[in-house]
Task: inverse folding
C-alpha cells in the first residue's frame, strides 16, 4: 500500500473530506500578508497591525504546498509567498536560523520546534515546484545539523540564544515529535536514509524508552540528561506549548508518526523494529482510555496529571484532528474494526462541536462544556492540523504527505 491511495476511505466520505479541505483553504487564504502569513481571528480577519509569524508562515506554506499538489488553483503563489518570507524577512541573516516573527525581540531564542516547521515547509514547497524552495531547504538542513541535532543523544536539542552561544537546559518531546515529522519528509525529498535513522533514534528514546515505561503516556519535559521533569510548569498548567503533565493529543500524534516511520523504513528497505506497531497501539489505547470523555463530557481533554486525572479540561481542535488521523492510520495498518469505530467517533465529535459552519474553519478551543472559548488559543491561526486531518485518511502511510500527493497525481 506504500505507493497507493488508502483503500479504506469510501467515495462519499472521501468527497466530504475533500470539500472540507477546500472550505478550510478558503478561510486560510485571508492570512496572507505582503511578507508571509499572520494569525487570523475567529472570523477570519487579520489584525490591523498584523505581522508575519514564522510558525504560521511555515505551516501555511506547507499546507498550501499540499493543496497545490492536490491540484487546487492559486495555491502555488501562496507557497512562493511563504518561501520568500522564510528566506527573507523571517530569516536571521546575521546569525543564521529563523526569528519567531517579522518583528523579533532583540535576543529572541532559536527553537527546534520552529526550525522543524521551516524544514517541513521547505521540503513540501520543493515537492510542489517552488523555484526558491531548494535553497531554503538547504539552509534549514544546515541549521538543523549544525545546532539542533545531537548525535550523542539521538535527539534534538531544544533551543539556543539568538547567537547560538547559550543552550536551554531542557529537552522536549514536542520539538522532537515535530522533528520526527520533518525528518520523514526530508528523507523523501533528499533521498537520504539518515533522516529515517535519526527519526528512529528519536522514537527509541522518547517513546520506546520513556513513554512505554510510563504506561504509554508521553513524558513531555526533560533535563539535559533526559531525566523527566514531572513538575515542569506546575504553576503554568495550561501553557500552549509546554503544559504541565500528560498531553494526550501528543500520544495520538506520536502513534501516527510511528506508523509513518514503520512504513517509510519498509519502503526504504531498512531494518524496521516490530515494536513500532506495538508502541503505536499502546499510545493510542492509553490516550483513548484516559482522555476521551474522562470528565463526563464528550471530547478529549487537553492535559492529565500523573494519576491520569484531568487537569486542563478544554478541548483543542488539534487534539481531535490528531486523534482522527491516528485512528485512520491504525485502521489502515491493521484493518481492525476498533480503529474504524474510533475514527467515526472522533469525526462525529469534530462535526458536532469543532467545525464552524457560520464563521468558517474550526473552533480552535472549546470550554469543558464544549462551547467556543479562547483561554489557551485565541482565534483560528492554524490550518495545518485540520488540513492534514482531511488529507491523511486518503493517503498511504508512506511516503510522507507532499511526496505521496505528488506520486498520486
Result:
Amino acid at each position: 500500500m506504500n505507493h497507493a491511495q488508502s483503500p479504506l476511505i469510501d467515495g462519499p466520505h472521501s468527497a466530504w473530506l475533500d470539500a472540507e479541505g477546500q472550505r478550510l483553504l478558503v478561510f486560510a487564504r485571508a492570512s496572507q500578508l505582503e511578507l508571509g502569513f499572520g494569525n487570523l481571528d475567529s472570523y477570519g480577519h487579520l489584525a490591523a497591525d498584523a505581522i508575519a509569524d514564522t510558525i504560521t508562515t511555515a505551516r501555511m506554506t506547507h499546507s498550501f504546498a499540499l493543496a497545490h499538489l492536490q491540484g487546487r488553483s492559486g495555491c502555488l503563489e501562496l507557497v512562493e509567498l511563504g518561501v520568500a518570507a522564510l528566506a527573507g524577512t523571517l530569516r536571521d541573516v546575521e546569525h543564521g536560523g529563523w526569528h519567531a516573527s517579522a518583528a523579533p525581540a532583540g535576543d529572541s531564542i532559536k527553537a527546534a520546534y520552529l526550525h522543524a516547521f521551516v524544514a517541513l515547509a521547505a521540503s513540501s514547497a520543493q515537492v510542489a515546484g517552488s523555484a526558491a524552495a531548494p535553497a531554503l531547504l538547504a539552509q534549514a538542513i544546515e541549521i538543523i545539523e549544525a545546532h539542533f541535532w545531537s548525535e550523542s543523544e539521538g535527539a534534538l536539542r531544544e533551543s539556543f540564544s539568538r547567537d547560538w552561544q547559550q543552550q536551554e537546559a531542557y529537552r522536549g518531546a514536542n520539538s522532537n515529535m515535530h522533528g520526527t515529522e520533518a525528518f520523514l519528509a526530508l528523507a523523501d525529498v533528499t533521498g537520504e536514509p539518515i533522516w529515517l535513522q535519526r527519526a528512529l533514534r528519536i522514537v527509541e528514546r522518547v517513546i520506546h524508552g520513556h513513554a512505554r515505561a510510563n504506561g504509554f503516556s508521553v513524558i513531555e519535559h526533560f533535563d539535559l540528561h533526559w531525566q523527566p521533569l514531572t513538575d515542569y510548569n506546575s504553576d503554568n498548567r495550561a501553557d500552549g506549548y509546554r503544559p504541565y503533565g500528560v498531553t494526550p493529543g501528543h500520544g495520538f500524534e506520536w502513534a501516527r508518526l510511528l506508523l509513518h516511520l514503520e512504513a517509510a523504513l519498509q519502503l526504504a528497505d531498512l531494518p524496521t523494529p516490530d515494536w513500532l506497531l506495538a508502541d503505536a497501539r499502546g499510545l493510542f489505547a492509553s490516550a483513548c482510555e484516559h482522555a476521551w470523555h474522562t470528565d463526563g463530557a464528550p471530547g478529549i481533554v487537553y492535559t492529565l496529571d500523573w494519576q491520569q486525572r484531568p487537569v486542563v479540561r478544554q478541548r483543542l481542535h488539534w487534539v481531535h484532528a490528531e486523534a482522527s488521523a491516528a485512528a485512520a492510520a491504525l485502521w489502515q495498518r491493521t484493518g481492525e474494526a476498533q480503529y474504524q469505530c474510533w475514527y467515526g467517533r472522533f469525526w462525529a465529535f469534530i462535526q458536532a462541536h469543532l467545525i464552524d459552519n457560520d464563521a468558517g474553519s474550526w473552533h480552535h478551543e472549546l470550554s469543558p462544556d464544549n462551547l467556543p472559548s479562547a483561554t489557551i488559543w485565541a482565534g483560528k491561526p492554524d490550518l495545518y492540523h485540520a488540513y492534514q486531518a482531511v488529507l491523511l485518511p486518503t493517503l498511504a502511510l508512506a511516503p510522507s504527505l507532499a511526496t505521496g500527493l505528488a506520486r498520486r497525481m
In short: Residues 194-213 form the longest helix (20 residues). The CA atoms of residues 149 and 156 lie 5 Å apart. The chain is about 50% helix and 5% strand. The first strand starts at residue 32 and ends at 33.
